[in-house]
Amino acid sequence: MQELFRQNRKMGRPPMRWLVRKNGLPFASFLFCPDKTHKTAVARNRSKRILRELVRNHLSSIPVGYDCALLVQKEFAKLSKEDREVLFLSVLKQFP
């Protein structure tokens, strides 16, 4: 996973960014990273749950063979469900 942070392609804009790197495997792997603006574990875990649900719902749209790190700020969890999904899909359209 350290290679993902060293050699990657950045997509998206705050409050959600993706770091993507080819892994050459027949599946995609995900890392969910709430940033330091999340002050409590409750806030970090909520953001991770939201991200996991978005990935689960749109897994068929995500290309295989990539390592993906999804970085979110605390404002991401404060968005409405529809706004989060629109943001997620807009970043997904930028996928290589």
From TrEMBL:
It comes from Leptospira kanakyensis. GO terms for molecular function: ribonuclease P activity; tRNA binding. Keywords: Endonuclease, Hydrolase, Nuclease, RNA-binding, tRNA processing. It comes from the Bacteria. It holds the Pfam family Ribonuclease_P. InterPro entries: Ribosomal_Su5_D2-typ_SF, Ribsml_uS5_D2-typ_fold_subgr, RNase_P. GO terms for biological process: tRNA processing. This is Ribonuclease P protein component-like protein.
